[in-house]
């Protein structure tokens, strides 16, 4: 319950006028309220920072101040499905893929300066920002408010990964998923919302329920599928993909992609194995301890060697060895993550 003097952010549908006040219906809770000190056109609006100042005829009265931002939702048309904006962009795999499919990449947002620099060098428009920062979310919304488009995000996998702590929504990093969903709601998801994470995320009901709740509030359908890159390419990478979209007469019906009959291997992509100076090769060679641990069944069945006639293991965030340059306490943590759950 909002107290007098407190502010809130909400998406609302304009219902009409009542004297100098504008009548809105909040879309999340379906509540009616009044807004003063701002003129509005018909349609759906996102109101950032409106303040409860009192009541009139049993309805709450919210006031717009100089700090209030109001953004009008753009109509959805075919163009909304031909362009996209990306958050948690990283090096922006989805925007690069969209460009290859003749779609129009829009704005990319990432917390990392380095990632944004890479995005710009690859010809994409990028802005540094943190989804956990409300002002950064508002700035992003303003920047993309000119036209409807898709919203895509690969949210942090560490809370759900088989080789992580698997704390799920109790892990502070999972809050980024909630902020992606919050942004999608305030944008009123004019096109699709496409989400990506590790396959294990579907084992966490709280994460799935949060996404399903957004779909329900938007009156969207929610479908998801796990795709394995090795079905088409000589590198393992199993990823969960979720799609929220306006309800259709027939379900979208996401399905696994076909298994390649060619069974490509690393040699098909890298026909000649590169050579490095002997000193560097010896420095990179596994120690006896590393060999024993990486080949031990107690740490799972993952293949941690490259075989030119086989498929590469999943590319991780870092190829550094988890057992080197660590304190004793950190070594214990590294062993724990080799185990998985």
Automatic annotation (TrEMBL):
Its GO biological process annotations read: methylation
Q: Which UniProt keywords apply?
A: Methyltransferase, S-adenosyl-L-methionine, Transferase
- GO MF entries: methyltransferase activity
Which Gene3D superfamilies does the UniProt record give?
Answer: Vaccinia Virus protein VP39
- Pfam annotation, one family: DNA_methylase
Q: What is this protein called?
A: Modification methylase HhaI
Per the UniProt entry, what species is this protein from, by scientific name? Symbiodinium microadriaticum (Dinoflagellate)
């Amino acid at each position: 319950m909002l107290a007098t003097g407190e502010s809130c952010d909400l998406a609302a549908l304009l219902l009409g006028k009542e004297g100098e006040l504008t009548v809105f219906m909040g879309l999340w809770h379906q509540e009616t309220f009044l807004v003063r000190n701002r003129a509005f056109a018909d349609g759906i609006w996102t109101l950032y920072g409106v303040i409860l100042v009192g009541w009139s005829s049993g309805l709450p009265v919210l006031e717009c101040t100089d700090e209030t931002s109001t953004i009008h939702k753009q109509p959805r048309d075919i163009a909304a499905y031909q362009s996209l904006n990306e958050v948690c962009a990283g090096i922006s795999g989805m925007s690069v893929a969209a460009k290859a499919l003749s779609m129009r990449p829009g704005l990319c947002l990432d917390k990392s300066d380095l990632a944004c620099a890479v995005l710009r060098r690859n010809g994409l428009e990028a802005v540094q920002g943190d989804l956990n920062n409300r002002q950064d979310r508002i700035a992003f919304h303003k920047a993309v408010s000119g036209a409807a488009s898709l919203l895509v995000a690969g949210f942090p996998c560490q809370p759900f990964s088989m080789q992580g702590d698997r704390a799920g929504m109790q892990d502070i990093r999972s809050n980024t998923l909630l902020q992606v969903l919050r942004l999608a709601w305030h944008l009123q998801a004019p096109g699709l919302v496409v989400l990506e994470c590790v396959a294990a995320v579907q084992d966490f009901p709280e994460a799935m329920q949060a996404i399903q709740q957004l779909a329900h509030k938007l009156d969207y359908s929610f479908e998801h599928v796990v795709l394995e890159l090795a079905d088409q390419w000589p590198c393992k990478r199993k990823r969960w993909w979720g799609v929220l979209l306006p309800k259709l007469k027939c379900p979208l019906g996401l399905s696994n992609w076909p298994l390649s009959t060619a069974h490509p291997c690393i040699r098909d992509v890298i026909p000649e194995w590169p050579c490095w100076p002997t000193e560097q090769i010896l420095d990179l060679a596994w120690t006896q301890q590393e060999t024993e641990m990486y080949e031990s069944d107690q740490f799972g069945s993952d293949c941690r060697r490259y075989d030119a006639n086989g498929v590469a293991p999943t590319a991780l965030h870092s190829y550094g060895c988890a057992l080197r340059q660590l304190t004793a306490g950190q070594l214990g943590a590294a062993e724990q993550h080799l185990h998985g759950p």
